[in-house]
Each structure stands twice: as structure tokens, then as C-alpha cells.
Design goal:
There is one protein chain. The protein is mainly alpha-helical and about 160 residues long. The chain has one domain. It is about 70% helix and about 0% strand. It is built from six helices and no strands. Keywords: Golgi apparatus, Membrane, Protein transport, Transmembrane, Transmembrane helix, Transport. Belongs to the SFT2 family.
Length: about 160
């Protein structure tokens, strides 16, 4: 196997950051596995790309009226993308950050909405409910993400107040 090519991150000296990311425990260290930073980056990219593809295929099924397929694919895509971020900072660190007091409500709404997408698509078979739960999931994830940016939530709330009046 050649060490050349655009996927060979080992040869890109200094490209993968030492301290900015990958600060948490190694992704599988609790189970006796040690993953390199490169492997963890590949895990992140792979999970994120596959998760995105599953979500897009799910949306295509939603448009075609396949509620069960949508619920399954979109939900799995979201979960897989979430798992991908665990490769970057470590799964335990990710859980600690997700359930900090500033994020706990957004995290719980996000996780419950993922479950409700499965319920709406697979159990109930309602496209309308699926779309509502996807919107709720998107809003919860956006609010969750804004909690990592200083003053972002305050800025968004100010913008919403100004447009509402």
C-alpha cells in the first residue's frame, strides 16, 4: 500500500493538531484499544460522511412518501454523525460537555426528537410528525451548538426580539 495520496494524513506533519482537538480520552481506551489521532480523525470523517449520506437518502424517502425508511435512515444518520464527534474529543468528554447545565435542555430535546423521528416514521408512519420532529431536532441542535460560541445565544435572542417587534 502506498503512503502517498490525499488520504494519507500521517505524512502531513503538523496538520493534525495536538491540543486543539483530541483532548479527551481515546475513543476506545476504556476497552483496551488505543487509536491514533489519525485513526480518530478518520473515524470522525467516516461517521460524519456516512451519517450525512444516510440523512440525505432518508429525506429522499420522505419526499417519496416512505415514512418508515425516512425515520430509520434519518435517525441513524443523525446518531452516526453524533458518534463521529466522539472520535474527536472522546466519548466520555462528549457526554460531559453535552450534559453541562448550559446545554442539558437542548441536549435532551435533541435526543428525544431523534427518538421521536423513529416513532413518527416507523411506529406511527406519519410524514407530518416526522417533519415536525426534524424541525425540533434542528432547532435543538442549533441551540446546543450556539452554546459553544461565547455570547451567540444572547445575540440570537436579541435578533429574534428585534424581528418580533
Amino acid at each position: 500500500m502506498s503512503n502517498k495520496g490525499w488520504l494519507n494524513l500521517e505524512s502531513a506533519a503538523g496538520v493534525i493538531p495536538d491540543n486543539q482537538f483530541f483532548e479527551g480520552e481515546d475513543a476506545f481506551s476504556k476497552f483496551g484499544f488505543k487509536l491514533s489521532k489519525t485513526t480518530r480523525l478518520y473515524g470522525f470523517i467516516g461517521c460524519t460522511v456516512i451519517g450525512f449520506i444516510l440523512s440525505v437518502i432518508g429525506v429522499i424517502f420522505l419526499i417519496l412518501g416512505g415514512w418508515v425508511s425516512f425515520g430509520l435512515l434519518y435517525g441513524m444518520g443523525t446518531i452516526l454523525s453524533l458518534i463521529g464527534t466522539g472520535f474527536v474529543i472522546g466519548f466520555l468528554q462528549q457526554l460531559k460537555l453535552m450534559f453541562k447545565p448550559v446545554r442539558i435542555v437542548a441536549t435532551l430535546v435533541f435526543l428525544v426528537s431523534i427518538a421521536l423521528i423513529f416513532v413518527g416514521g416507523i411506529v406511527i408512519g406519519s410524514g407530518v410528525l416526522c417533519i415536525i420532529f426534524v424541525i425540533i431536532q434542528f432547532l435543538a441542535f442549533t441551540w446546543y451548538t450556539l452554546s459553544y460560541i461565547p455570547y451567540a445565544r444572547t445575540a440570537v435572542m436579541g435578533l429574534v426580539k428585534r424581528t418580533a417587534t
